[in-house]
Design goal:
Blueprint: H1 6-10, H2 18-32, H3 41-57, H4 60-74, H5 86-96, E1 119-125, E2 134-145, E3 161-162, E4 171-176, E5 179-184, E6 193-194, E7 207-218, E8 227-230, E9 246-252, E10 259-261, E11 264-272, H6 273-278, E12 280-286, E13 289-295, E14 304-307, E15 323-330, H7 337-350, H8 356-369
Parallel strand pairs: 1-9, 11-15
Antiparallel strand pairs: 2-7, 3-6, 4-5, 8-9, 10-11, 12-13, 14-15
Helix pairs in contact: 2-3
Bound molecules: zinc ion (2 copies).
C-alpha cells in the first residue's frame, strides 16, 4: 500500500507550525489510540500512521529532509517501526500526560517494571449513612509515583536507554529445531530498555512512600462486606510498571438499636404495662428521626408493628424497606405502698377473669396434661 503524505495524514497545511501539528496529532491520537479502540486494527493503523507523521514533522531536521526528499530522504532513519509503540511513548506522554497510562504500560505495550501491589482498605459507615449515596474521602498510605522522575526511575534529564542486547524488543529469539522460541531478554528483564543513571529520590524504583487522598462513592443501601474496586488506585508500579488496584471493603457499623435484615430494620421498644393495657402513644426512633406509634389497648408483649418505608433503601433503588417495631411490656420492679394497694384492688376487681392469651394458654395446658 502506498504511503500517504505526512501532511495529508495529519490534515494540515505544508506551512503548519509546531502548535498546529501538535493539535492535529492530538486530535487524531485521541480518536484512534488503541486503548480507546481495542481490537480494531483499522484504528491502530491510523494511529500508527499519524504517530509516524507527527514524529517526523515535529522534528525540524527530519521535516526539512522530508520536505526536500520525501520518504526516500528518511530511509534508514531509525524509530519508525510501525510495531513499536514505545518509540512514541514519550511523544504521547508529552502531549497527554498519563491519559493513556502509556507511562505505566497496560499490557498492550511492553515496558519496564512490575505492577504495584493491590491495596485493601476498610471503610466503616454508619447505618444512617446508607440512606443516600455518600462520598467518602479516604486517606490512603501507599507507594506513589516518584515526582522527581515521574515514575520512570531514571535520573531527570536522562531517560531509559534502549537495551542493546535485544535491540529494545525485550525478547530474545532462539531457533530450536523447527521452532523459533522467544524468551524475555535477560539484560533488561524483558523491558527493552535499561536505566543507566538512577533517580536519586527513589533510587531507581520510580516510586516513594506517600499518602493519597481519594474520594469514593458509597452506594445507598450497600450491604456490609461489599467490596468496591478502584482500578489503578493501588500502589504505584515498580520502575515504571503499572499501578495495582485499590479494594475498599464496606463495613457497616453495628447499631445499638437497629438490627438489619436486608432492607428491613428491626428494633424493640419497651412500653409501661399500663400503656399496654390502656393503649396510648409511644415514641419510636427511626433513621429519619423520632416517630409516634399508636399502640392499641390490650397490646401484648412481643407484638410487632410495621413502620412502612422507614427501613433502608434497596441497592441502587429508591424504594425503602420497613421498620419492624417489637413491643415488650415492662413490669415495674418497685412499687410504692399506694401502687401496691391499687394493684391489689385491681386484681380483686378482675376476680378470676384472665386475658384471652392466658386463657388459651391454660386450655393448651389442659390438652397436653389431660
Ligand atoms: Zn524517582
Ligand atoms: Zn534487552
Amino acid at each position: 500500500m502506498a504511503k500517504r503524505d505526512y501532511y495529508e495524514v495529519l490534515g494540515v497545511d505544508r506551512s503548519a507550525d509546531a502548535d498546529a501539528l501538535k493539535r492535529a496529532y492530538r486530535a487524531l491520537a485521541l480518536e484512534f489510540h488503541p486503548d480507546r479502540n481495542p481490537d480494531d486494527p483499522a484504528a491502530e493503523d491510523k494511529f500508527k500512521e499519524a504517530s509516524e507523521a507527527y514524529a517526523v514533522l515535529s522534528d525540524p531536521d527530519k521535516r526539512r529532509t522530508y520536505d526536500r526528499f520525501g520518504f526516500e530522504g528518511l530511509g534508514g532513519q531509525p524509530g519508525f517501526d510501525a510495531g513499536d509503540f514505545g518509540a512514541f511513548g514519550d511523544v504521547l506522554n508529552d502531549l497527554f500526560g498519563d491519559l493513556f497510562g502509556t507511562r505505566g504500560g497496560n499490557g498492550r505495550r511492553r515496558g519496564r517494571g512490575r505492577r504495584g501491589a493491590d491495596l485493601r482498605y476498610t471503610l466503616e459507615v454508619e447505618l444512617k449513612e446508607l440512606l443516600q449515596v455518600r462520598e467518602s474521602t479516604l486517606q490512603i498510605p501507599k507507594m506513589r509515583p516518584c515526582g522527581t522522575c515521574s515514575g520512570s526511575g531514571a535520573k531527570p534529564g536522562t531517560r531509559p536507554e534502549s537495551c542493546s542486547r535485544c535491540r529494545g524488543s525485550g525478547q530474545l529469539m532462539f531457533q530450536q529445531g523447527f521452532f523459533r522460541i522467544s524468551r524475555p531478554c535477560d539484560a533488561c528483564g524483558g523491558a527493552g530498555e535499561i536505566v543507566k543513571e538512577r533517580c536519586a529520590t527513589c533510587r531507581g524504583a520510580g516510586r516513594i512512600e506517600g499518602e493519597q487522598q481519594l474520594t469514593v462513592k458509597v452506594p445507598a443501601g450497600v450491604e456490609h462486606g461489599t467490596r468496591l474496586r478502584l482500578a489503578g488506585e493501588g500502589e504505584a508500579g515498580i520502575e515504571g510498571g503499572p499501578p495495582g488496584d485499590l479494594y475498599v471493603d464496606i463495613a457497616v457499623k453495628p447499631h445499638p438499636f437497629f438490627q438489619r435484615d436486608a432492607t428491613d430494620l428491626h428494633c424493640q421498644v419497651p412500653i409501661p404495662f399500663v400503656h399496654a393495657a390502656l393503649g396510648g402513644e409511644v415514641e419510636v426512633p427511626t433513621l429519619d428521626g423520632k416517630m409516634t406509634l399508636r399502640v392499641p389497648e390490650g397490646t401484648q408483649s412481643g407484638k410487632t408493628f410495621k413502620l412502612a418505608g422507614k427501613g433502608l433503601p434497596q441497592l441502587g433503588g429508591r424504594q425503602r424497606g420497613d421498620q419492624i417495631v417489637q413491643i415488650f411490656v415492662e413490669v415495674p420492679t418497685k412499687l410504692t405502698d399506694r401502687q401496691r394497694e391499687l394493684l391489689e384492688e385491681f386484681a380483686r376487681e378482675g376476680g378470676t377473669e384472665v386475658s384471652p392469651v392466658s386463657r388459651s394458654f391454660v386450655e393448651k395446658l389442659k390438652d397436653l396434661l389431660g
